[in-house]
Amino acid sequence: MAEHLTNFPYLTCMVLSPVIGIAIILFLKEEQKFLIRAVSLVSAGISLGFSIYTFVAYDRALGGLQFVEKYEWVKGFGISYFVGVDGLNAPLLLLTGIVIFTGVLTMWELELRVKEYFAFMLFLVTGVFGVFMSMDMFFFFLFYEIAVVPMYVLILIWGSTRKEYAAMKLTLYLMAGSGLIIPGLLLLYATSGLYTFDLLKLHGVHFSPWVQKLTFVLLLFGFGVLAAMWPFHTWSPVGHVAAPTAVSMLHAGVLMKLGSYGILRIPMYLCPEGFQYWSSLFGLLAICGIVYGVFVGLAQTDLKYVIGYSSVSHMGIVALGLATGTVDGLNGSVFQMFAHGIMTALFFSAVGYIYDRTHTREIHELGGFCKIMPVASAFFITAALCGAGVPGFASFWAELLVFIAAVRVFGIGGLIALASIVVGALFALRVVQNSFYNEPNPKFTHLEDVSPFLGLPRMILIATLILFGIFPSLMLDLIKTAVVPFISGL
Amino acid sequence: MYNNLQTFLLLAALLFAIGLYGVLARRSLIAVLISVELMLNAASINFMAFNRFLIPEPAVGQIITLFIMAVAAAEAAIALSIIIAVYRKLKSINVEHVNELRG
Amino acid sequence: MSELFSLAGLSFLLVVGMTLGGAFIAVGARNIFHNVLGLALSLFGVAGIFLYLNSPFLAMMEILIYVGAICIAICFAIMLSEPLYRPRPPRKPIKLLGAAVGAGLVFVVFAALVKKTAWVPAAMRSDDWSVTTIGHYLLTRYALIFEAISLILLVAMLGAIVNAKNGRGREES
Amino acid sequence: MAMQFSDTTFLACLVTSILPILSFGLIMIFTRENPKLSLAISLTASTIPLILAWGLLYKYWGIQEPLVYNLRWLYSDIVKIPFGFLLDPTSLLMLTIVATVSWLVQVYSIGYMGGDPGFGRFYAFLSLFAFSMLTLSISSGLLQLYICWELVGLASYLLIGFWYEKFSASEAGKKAFVVTRFGDVGFFMGLAFLTIYYGNLEIQQVNSAAVAQAMPAWLITTAALLIFCGVMGKSAQFPIHVWLPDAMEGPTPVSALLHSATMVAAGVYLIARIYPFFSASPEAMTVALAIGTITLLLSSTIGMVASDIKQVWAYSTVSQLGFMIMGLAAGSFFAGYYHLTTHAAFKALLFLCSGVFIHHFGTNDFFIMAANGARKLKIPMVTITIAALALAGIFPLAGFFSKEGILGALAHLDNKIWLFAGLFGAFLTAYYSFRVIFVMLFPREPIFQIAAAHSHAEEAHGSHGHGHGHEHEEEHGVPWVMNLPLLILAFFTLTLGFLQGALEQFLTGHAGHHEISIPLLVSAVGAALAGIGLAWLDWGAKNAKCVGFLSRVPALENFFIQKWYMDHFWRWFLNTFIYGLFSKWFTYNDRRVVDGGVDAVAFSTVGSGRYLSRYQTALLQVNLLFMVLVMAGVGLYLVMGR
Amino acid sequence: MKAVALFLPELYFLLMALVLFFCSLRRQTEPSKDFRLFLAMSAGGILVGALSLFQQGSLFFASYQVDLFSQVFKLALAGGVFLVALICHRLPGVEDRFHAEFYLFLTTCTVGMMMLVSAVELLTIYISLELASYSLYILIPMRQGDGIDVEAGVKYLFIGAVSSCFMLFGLSYLFGATHSTYLVDILPKMPALLASPVGLLGLILSLAGFFFKLSLFPIHFWAPDVYQGGANQLVAYIATASKVAAVAILLRFAALGSSYGYSFAQILVFLSIVSMTLGNLVAIIQKDFKRMLAYSSIAHAGYILMGVLTLSESGYTSVIYYAVAYLIMNFTCFMVLSEVADDGRDLQIAEFAGLYHRSPLLALALMMGLFSLAGVPPSIGFTGKLLIFTSAMNQGYFWLVLIGAVNGTISLYYYLRVVYAAYFMDPGDLPKVVPSPAIRWTTYALILIIIGFGVFPMHVVDLARTAVKFVLYT
């Protein structure tokens, strides 16, 4: 992959902006709530700006790795600070920028321990940005862990419903995943003979088959935990239910993508033979996840559980796309990471708004919300339709590509996965019908609808979904620049 | 026989084992200390035996043994003072009565 | 075998017997004073062994330091601590068995090690066993340790005082 | 590509396609709360396409070579989805039908939906529907068609569930979406197969490849059968027709627009669109023929016993769709497509007329309407009768010609059983449609009793057919915006029949030279007349008992009233398999096995910690013994192992 | 004069011991004066340590090696003493009249350890080790308490005595087999002993003494009891400074086994695995904070051993880095402990409840320390752990790394429990904790170091890398 150095550290600025935000927030007083929010918004906004810039300014004709920055870090261990943008991570950086920006706006009304909340959230985002842009395995892992750990605190303080259990479960589960990732990464490092963590350099090495197989399966399961790959998904619904709104947004929207992105970026990139060897297992698990997610979600009565399981299912689609190992599949998969991120952020932010007002998420206790708060409901219904794979939203294209690739590669398995989207539709509409249609519950009729200011973040998300739903090429052409060489390198 | 290195080494090992048995079996802390002294002596014998049969400079082993003795003396002093402290606090020097900390 | 029945051989057996017998008494007798006496006996035996190992100086030091100092100290400690007339609980066979197994295994390991190893003497061996050399070494090569050991002894003394005072002081208060 | 933008035809297509979606966006985001503005936007966005569609039809009347325009939309590796337009007679006709019906319905709805709180939203959804359907009809590629197809489904969902506070409406919307989704998945699978094994989804090329046998036969059959699943879903064919009657929960204009004239015809249109491809697989054609036949008979029988006027027309729609498919599957492209065209006119008319009655009387039950004096509404009564005659296939109305065409095609088949089935269907159709007409036109004494019984039942249920009974408008009569579309449609119903030759020339490229088969003609008209006659005896005659002849076989009648138990079957299927078996079992598995396994690992870790802590005893010597044993073990390993 | 310069840190601490000795002879007790003196002198110790960082040479007839390796550790030791001195401003665990003695023994212990890291001769090593140990034996029962202090003292003493007997035996075998007491002479003779078990067994037995210091399985039994029974400040010292010295000598000594390759390493692999697994598992169920940290130290001994057993340059480098990291992060926890337990009591984990409300800064420090111990980035512990894993993997210890990584997850569980208590439990009527300015600044500094050296490890690593060249003779 060609590397194009940059003369301005765009990426470093992108990742440091939240850090500076944290630093400023730490010097503010807890009482200066508005200032804290403003600072977080600005730092998130700067990151968003940079991510949009890199997305737009990425030279699609040139391809390769652009905006590259590279410094030696720890020489003796072959660690370098090496960041760059290509077609695989540019959409995800954009996704992160959008979700954090809208996430800050969504939590604007927060009153409890505001300072810490935004500090931790920005901390998490730093990690996420870092993972997506790192081309060095050490920094990749460093940022990965940075992104995962604040969840514990965020859920514990601001969460609800069995938060202690959920936070502990989530953290331990994800750390167990890291427990598999470390040996995998280090195995690559050690067996390469180069003693470098540089992904591009390692890509040039031909690892022996057993190393590839072993590493691939380790990293597959390690990252798979975060990607909620079946059967390692059980932390995800529990965690989403417990987490506060913006954290759910970030977590389901962005953090879970770290897992699938990790699978794409490291094991698939470096261990093609391992991938060949395990791809059928990978595909099988993905299909299981898709089918399983919709059926279990069908039986849930808590809105967030429903969304949690829909995430399991949709992340299964991402995984399925990866498992196909075809250009279409990977295109679709990366696209789906982006689309699902935005969609699920929208889901959680809509549910979060309703939960904040009603303090219930039981599907049957709600009802008729289209009457009570039409705008909030419209947000949710949009997300639900997007989740059901309706054209016109970004995720439709992704699913289309993935399923076609999956039918081609996995045959019957792909067909089964495809068939499950009927249940997916039932699943989404069931919730919409029970909570948003029908007669309004008189308990909640006095509640106010979303104010335009609070509606703004949701509108941004919807606009993104529709923009890329109508003009998928904006995204796909970018993704393709990376995927085509990626596949030919497999 | 007494010109044979192995005799002395086995003797030392036996003495060490006896001392170890004492450490593991005796209930009185003072008896345990006595057993430790035996083990130290066993080590001394080892050093002296090597010194006698193998080593280029015979002074070295002797000096080591000398130092072991000194260390043993210091150890005895400290151990005894602690044992007395134990006795004062717990009214017993039975090692099985020293059983607060566990788990 | 003949050497065994020579004077030196017999006295060597005696010394070994003293060592081991004393050791058995030291760990086996139920009366704590007998243990101390056993220890003294054993230490005399060790001193004898040192004689056989060509070092009368060390034998002397052994008797001086160990028998002279340590044993007396232990006696004092016994008198300061537990009264002898206190009834003793019966022994626990399992514990003794465990101890015997542990000690026995260690002995087996060491014995096997001793047997299996080919002990090679140094090619060039000096025969300078004089105390002068020891003294010389103590002040040159081992000067640091010589200082250190004095520090250890100082620490031990101070520590013994502190710990002992500690106990008494607490009892008074 | 730049060339295309200076091409007026292309621009016309683009505008036709894009305007309604813009209107949808504008209304949803900005003017939802403002009925007038929304209406203006939406009407503009449907009038311009109407004009353009007619203009295109006029301009390209007699076109020989299809016109294709493609824009780059999404080009992945194998999957290439252009956004394009294909203009040929098939698509031009459909475009015109859709544009016309949707314009008429928008006009009609001004009256029908006036005063509804969701007026703006309603028009937004109509615009969304217009966009999807217009684009569907002129799509150049199958994937683009599929996308529009899905959007049509979405619009249908939104419109059926328009009165979402009503449980039955939201339920019906969900049902429609999910059931058609069921078929769509098949459609998509078919497309996936085509993509993978053929690689090109341009309609033109698929068609010509199938004709040229450039595809393996298995692929054609598989793909055609899978795509036919989509047709079954959208065109409500047995056994997944169950959503369509329920879809009548939506406002009546919606029923007229989506669920009779256009959306449900999309399935038939799809077959027509890729007819060369379809007809390359005899197996697929046979399956389609069988399913069409079953659908025709099944739904006609149900229509005979329904008392809800919209239900009757709904089942009638189902049966006529089956009939169209029979026509297509019997090998006559023109017959099927022509029936689609005429059906669009008279069925939309039927619904709109019914809508007037419903609007006026605030009930769906035609017995109650009859009892309350439905015949006094002159224009609707006349037009509905015309439409019913057309439906029954009476000369010289549109239905007669198209039905004749299909029966003719069936007659060409070797196996005459299809023909008899078709004739029987025609008989049933005439019976049930005139059952309605006679009841409403000549209400006899028993009708009033039935009506009374029905209205009691309705009150007991506490539901009103309409939900928005506008009784206060009774004195105003019927507004002109509602009458105008009736008249226009009636005009088409009357005239379309005579355009048969011209249309055939246009569509198939060669003039129809029908040797008129006299026996067929006689038997067809005879079947229709027999149906009408029986209906007269049962319902219309002076001393009619006003009970269907079926009541002599109560078991059969009950079977029909229960809609062949299809709803029960699907409900049972859903409850037993989807909810009961898979969902429940997976959930149990998730909680107990998967999550339980995770928790078990966690607990056993803690447990092992508790267990291991017991080795840290308070007894010094036990600890020492442990330590010595480990050391001795290591020592033994080293001593013995070497 | 050169010799004095080389011996400067030891001399300085000897002098300090002397001064403190005189203090202890004073008739009236002046604990605050003692404290200030101790603090000032230990601060000077850091200075001296830093000054002599780049000294190099050999003393006492080659039995004493001064090189970058030893000086780095001496500096770390001096730093450790200074840090411990900082939290001695309140020493409620020890009677006022014994404060001077307390400091004195800490100093002598430090002297012993400084000698230990420089010692390259068996007898010197043994004596230095005993000097360090004896000081600690005495210190533990000095605590005011209800009997568990003497119990801890007795257990510590006897386990130490037995292990040093084993060590002595091992040393004697090495002495007998190689005819020398100098490491430089022993090393070339080790390959000749490959055929018989004596070299390996002698080496392992000798290591027992260091394992004892490091609280490595199987000689770990003292750790929980001593941690719980000792005064908080003292345990802070044992848990940080004394570990560092043990690591140093372990590195120096283990290099002797390099000619044995895998047959030597497999024993250490076994001990490492058992140690970290056992430590982490048992730590889960602990309720006493210090006891939990004791088990965590057992687990960390396993991690450290993982780096040692690689016997490679990168492994040694990462061990040095990790030892320093461990000193800092463990000290952070102990500092919070001693600040919260202002009356010198043992602290249950539950007593951290609501620490966030009682002292946000200390809560933050505690969290940083614990997360760092758990190996969560961006912290010094994470980087250290990853470096160790990297070097172990480089030597092909895949399973070891896997088990180590899984252990990291287990450990997170109990660390998180403490964090949970500190941040999310209701403080009830537990009093506020107000740290003194000195402690506040120390806390800031520690947090900064934990993050700073975690993210920018290159300087420490480079230093360690240079230092390692002096021990790894191969």
Major beta sheet, strand line-up of chain A: 1-2-3
Q: Structural class per helix/strand content of chain A?
A: mainly alpha
- Kindly estimate the percentage of residues of chain C that lie in beta strands according to DSSP: under 5%
Low-confidence stretches of chain A: none
Report the average pLDDT across residues of chain C: 84
Number of helices of chain A: 20
N-to-C order of helices and strands of chain C: HHHHHH
Largest sheet of chain C: none
Identify the quaternary structure here.
heteropentamer
Query: What portion of residues of chain A belong to β-strands?
Result: under 5%
The count of domains of chain C is 2
Domains counted in the coordinates of chain A: how many?
1
Tell me the helix content of chain A.
over 70%
What does this entry look like structurally?
The complex is a heteropentamer of chains A (490), B (103), C (173), D (642) and E (474). Chain A is mainly alpha-helical and 490 residues long. Chain A has one domain. Chain A is built from 20 helices and three strands. In chain A, a hairpin with a 4-residue loop joins β2 and β3 (79-85). In chain A, α3 packs antiparallel against α19, α7 packs antiparallel against α9 and α10 (235-242) runs antiparallel to α11. Chain C folds into two domains: 1-84, no CATH class; 124-173, no CATH class. Chain C has six helices and no strands. The longest helix of chain C is centred in the C-terminal third of the chain and has 30 residues, at 143-172. The N and C termini of chain C lie far apart (67 Å). The model of chain C is unreliable at 167-173 (pLDDT under 50). Chain D folds into three domains: 1-192 and 240-266, no CATH class; 350-561, no CATH class; 569-641. Helices cover 74% and strands 3% of the residues of chain D. Chain D has helices spanning 2-5, 8-31, 35-59, 89-112, 119-137, 142-160, 167-197, 203-211, 217-234, 243-246, 252-261, 265-273, 275-279, 282-303, 309-329, 333-361, 366-371, 378-392, 398-412, 417-441, 445-461, 480-495, 500-508, 518-540, 554-561, 566-613, 620-640, and strands spanning 67-75, 80-87. In chain D, α9 packs parallel to α14 and α15 (309-329) packs antiparallel against α20. The N and C termini of chain D lie far apart (82 Å). Mean pLDDT of chain D is 84; it is low at 462-475. Chain E has 474 residues and is mainly α. Chain E has one domain (2-472). The longest helix of chain E has 31 residues, at 148-178. In chain E, 72% of the residues are buried. Chains in contact: A-D, A-E, B-C, B-D, B-E, C-D, C-E, D-E. Chains C and E meet through α4 and α6 of C and α2, α5, α6 and α7 of E.
